[in-house]
Amino acid sequence: MEFRLSDKSLLPALVALLLLGSCVSLAVGAMTIGWRDVLAGLIHWSWPGFLELDVPEQYALVLGEIRLPRLVMGLMVGGTLGLCGAVMQGLFRNPLADPGIIGVSAGAGVGAAFVLVFASGAALTTFAGGIFKDLQWFLLPLAASLGGALSTWLVYRLGDRGKSVVMMLLAGVAINALAGAAIGLLNYVADDRALRDITLWQMGTLGGATWGTVAVSALVLMIGGALLWRRAPALNALLLGESEARHLGVDVVRLKQLMIVLTAIAMGAAVSAAGMIGFIGLVVPHTIRLLRGPDHRYLLPYSVLAGGLLLVLADTVARTLVAPAEMPVGIITALLGAPFFIYLLWQQRQQIF
Amino acid sequence: MLLEVTDLTIQYPRATAPLLEHISLGFACGEVTALLGPNGCGKTSLLRAISGELDYRGNIQLFGRPQADWYRRQNDHRALARRYGLLPQHSNLNFAFTCGEVVQLGLAPGSLSRAEQEERIGHFMQRADVWHLRDRLFPSLSGGEKQRVQLARVLSQLSLADAGDKKILLLDEPTSALDLKHQHDVLALAREVAGDNTAVVTVLHDLNLAARYADRLVMLANGLVQADGNPAELLQPELVEQVYGYRGQLVDVAGYRALL
């Protein structure tokens, strides 16, 4: 029997690690806060009069307005990346189909950069006044989703519907190159403010987290995740092949449309909120498959949890490594994920995932 | 006829001539039909057209209803999946499902309880002689073992049909990767399945195996049905030469006729 963890051990372990990681992420940073003060500060922030706690006002502010939304954003974006990675690998029937590698993130990035540049002055991470702010709140994820959907569709068609790994990866290279050129062009016409935003955000950062952006990410992850989880048995059948899935009663065309559209929307929301964070969609589902097997009924929810955990940990490292400055979290995930990708390519010769 | 193909023409987009031209064939309940013919004569394409995966001209009816009708509504599609299965020639499943899990995927169109699923998985894995592989990872198996696991999956799928429902089983070269013993085992199993209210259509390359286990042989070549009938009539050197371009010799051994 192959080594596999049971749900009785994997689920509690993941939840415990998530709680632990979240506490650490709240406590450390440019200003270290003791765990008592974390608790007291959060209570004070959410319900100022309650218990008359003696906690510095700035703790409550840092925790409630900066670290907590950032933590939740990390959980949501990481969860979205883990989920989208798992779903795309199912769609392409290949474990190398990471949204970053095959160019979906880049496509979403172009869409978002387009909005950023042409809406400069009312950039993503700031609250510019006026009606445009409201519009952008909606326009940015929308443009990113459209860009992401377009790239997914293109890679899927070019890669012979997932049959050809080589074509899929080459299509990813082409789309990444095209997106790079498009963003480069946009950089030229951008003003200084938009330029800085694009640059930071190309490397991926959770620094722009506000309760508003957190809410969008959470909503998209919950709805998209639930819809995809409901189709988990069909996703399992699809791993056998499109023809086999059709013979098992799956409406393959509609299932694929659902997968492409939902992952594109989710990636659009994630990319517009946190920029281009790579490799989580690659590392997380692969690890879960090693621990629990490829069954989507477990793979999808566990990938959401583990993706959130990984991004929160990476973000905590990014915030503390060079404190009081902070690194873009995308650099950390790439440092972690790129060697893993190389390892996977190495393993690809055995053809078992 | 459970499966009826009328005036079927298949032409690939950039081909100069049709692969199959005005073919009409019917497949009856309880019969094993072997589709024979040289490489590239359209055997697999015929199965793919029957499965609706290929553009064609003509008419295909499954259980007396036009094929496209079955796929219009999700409920019909699922109902069809409970009584109509295809064993593919190759499987390219790279993800690390155990063999037991692969067989379980066959039960997806049904709504059995966990215990009933386990029982059927066990039953059909034993029938296909792969029970000992149940905890092995599917991608790590040999080609023949994979083929038998997939067979167990398709058989468990057809076990979802309501009692008394007629069924169709398509097998695309089910013996191509099998050793001698399992070639015979699998075809004997196909015979048994046919006895259970099922029309079995199988693509085969081995004429002698086909003659021994099939009720009916259909020989395709040059886009046409060259011969269609019972094995005793069709196992003739002249006919075989006309279809395959190879003239064998007919021998009688212990009551079996074989073409060498």
TrEMBL record, chain A:
TM region positions: 71-92, 104-132, 138-156, 168-189, 209-229, 258-284, 299-317, 329-346
Keywords: Cell membrane, Membrane, Transmembrane, Transmembrane helix, Transport
The keyword DNA damage appears for this protein: no
CDD domains: TM_ABC_iron-siderophores_like
Cellular location(s): Cell membrane
SUPFAM superfamilies xref list: ABC transporter involved in vitamin B12 uptake, BtuC
Membrane topology: Multi-pass membrane protein
Major site of localization recorded for this protein: membrane
Source organism, top-level taxon: Bacteria
Family listed: Belongs to the binding-protein-dependent transport system permease family. FecCD subfamily.
Name this polypeptide is given: Iron ABC transporter permease
Species per Swiss-Prot/TrEMBL record: Microbulbifer harenosus
TrEMBL record, chain B:
MF GO annotations: ATP binding
InterPro entries, per database record: AAA+_ATPase (IPR003593), ABC_transporter-like_ATP-bd (IPR003439), ABC_transporter-like_CS (IPR017871), P-loop_NTPase (IPR027417)
Tagged with keyword Translocase: yes
Highest rank taxon of the organism: Bacteria
Pfam families: ABC_tran (PF00005)
Residue intervals of the ABC transporter domain: 3-247
Keyword ATP-binding: yes
Keyword set, alphabetical order: ATP-binding, Nucleotide-binding, Translocase, Transport
NCBIfam families documented for this protein: PRK13548.1
Role, per record: Part of the ABC transporter complex HmuTUV involved in hemin import. Responsible for energy coupling to the transport system.
Protein name (database record): Heme ABC transporter ATP-binding protein
Organism: Microbulbifer harenosus
